[in-house]
Amino acid sequence: MTDKAHNPSLDTLLPVYLQSTGITVHPSCNRRAGGAGPAEGITIIVNERPISVPTTGNTVESSPFSLQHIDGKHFIFNNGSPVKEVTLLPSPHYYTLKTAHGTEYREIALLHGAHCLASTVLQQCTYWHSPDRCTFCGIELSLQSRATIAKKTPQELAEVAKAASRLDGISHITLTTGTQADASFELEYLASCSAAIKAETNLPIHVQCMPPPNLSSLELLKQSGVDTIGVHIESFDQRILKKTAPSKARIDLKYYITVWTECIRLFGFNQVSSFLIVGLGEKNSSTLDGAALLCELGVYPFIVPLRPIPGTLMEKNLPPDACQIIPLYQEVASLLHSSGLSWKKSKAGCVRCGACSGLPDFEHG
Ligand code: SF4
């Protein structure tokens, strides 16, 4: 058996390099502007796995990689030479549809990766106009550019999910939200959206939220049909977290652990995750120690490279160099293996999709 973690092949490394440097693409290629998640990027299928790759930002102009279309096929070129044939997904059929009120379905939810329908149900964040805004986040940019609407209703989400399932074969859902001043409302709203989608499609649903002050609201999510949950600490380097996500840094680590533990009780082993962003200026050792702690709890540490989105407070930063993140992927893949965690066991959401991270390619077996 190939040891993917310690002797990574070119196929394992290519997505990592692409996410570090970005890629230049022809302007006609599909590209997302602003927003949360894989903003300002393109999804490329490499070895049957979707990879979200930046197409704008500091590194892209000088990136050695370009995407070229030759005789009906797509190829990644490195410094002018073809290195890999890849696939681009066609624009989803449901993007052509509108609600009875004239809202385009794509303003309500987007296709992420190859099979995930994703929506930011509340596109505004209580911290956006304050010093506590997370420096890496672009949540309100897509609202400013009118690519989306501020509030998606449960009925609209259910309508879009049904159409995307029927027309484009989506197989799971990710729901996220900007932080609301009223934490109970935030969780109740996610619960209503999840219940409406579940009733219409029965698809597995992932939600992402801040650690709620009241643990019983997690129970409400479970009762509403949520299958997996992401409670994202972003970084275990407290000094860096204070600078980049002050509102998260104010929450005691002990409370994060309480919330993750309760989530595991409700949603199960491997069905809880936390993003760990690499490239915020943190020490690799903090990411590794944090990933070890998460694995011990049964929480999947979803390691993602920073994507400096134009318009955000980190737009001038760089994604992490491949040399920084590869050893992390290797070490965390070993931790996942010894803990019995795997992206393959996740029912829904970012871990299931995997497009924003190179980690799935490093997992053993
Ligand atoms: S990993 Fe998450 S944020 Fe990234 S494309 Fe997939 S669902 Fe979207």
Largest sheet: 7 strands, mixed
Hetero groups: iron/sulfur cluster
The general outline is globular
Percent helix range: 25-40%
CA gyration radius, whole angstroms:
19 Å
Beta content comes to 15-25%
Number of strands: 12
Helix run count: 13
Mean of the pLDDT scores? 94
How would you characterize this protein structure?
This protein has helices spanning 10-21, 105-108, 141-144, 154-168, 183-201, 216-223, 238-244, 246-249, 253-267, 284-297, 322-339, 350-353, 359-362, and strands spanning 41-46, 49-54, 65-70, 73-78, 81-88, 110-112, 116-120, 172-176, 205-208, 228-230, 272-278, 300-305. Strands 6-7-8-9-10-11-12 form a 7-stranded mixed sheet. It has a 5-stranded antiparallel sheet with strand order 2-1-5-4-3, covered by helices on one side. The mean pLDDT is 94. The longest helix has 19 residues, at 183-201. It is globular and about 55 Å long. With 365 residues, it is α/β, with parallel strands linked by helices. It contains 13 helices and 12 strands. Strand 11, helix 10 (284-297) and strand 12 (300-305) form a beta-alpha-beta unit. Bound molecules: iron/sulfur cluster (SF4). Residues 37-38, 52, 112-113, 116, 118, 174, 350, 353-356 line the site of iron/sulfur cluster. Iron/sulfur cluster (SF4) is lined by residues 37-38, 52, 112-113, 116, 118, 174, 350, 353-356.
